[in-house]
Inverse folding.
């Protein structure tokens, strides 16, 4: 079981994100470095479609979001955390 965080971008995300990006990136690096954050990325149109991240545990996802500068400073308008059953396709 993995946990997917989906972010919904606030208005003008491209203008708002750069100010908070260094602190957001530091948090990403911290969670990735300890193995809690597995993947993260934006969709083709971040303003319309937002972004997502995959975490190893619900607790890590909740903790990340609770202190994320993008959430705390309104770069994202909202988020969801959902359980995801990863299925590995045999080679």
């Amino acid at each position: 079981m993995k946990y997917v965080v989906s972010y919904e971008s606030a208005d003008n995300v491209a203008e708002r994100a750069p100010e908070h990006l260094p602190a957001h990136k530091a948090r990403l690096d911290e969670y990735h470095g300890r193995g809690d954050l597995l993947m993260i990325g934006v969709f083709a149109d971040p303003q319309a479609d937002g972004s997502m991240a995959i975490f190893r545990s619900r607790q890590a996802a909740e903790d990340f979001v609770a202190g994320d500068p993008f959430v705390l400073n309104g770069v994202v308008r909202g988020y969801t955390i959902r359980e995801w059953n990863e299925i590995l396709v045999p080679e």
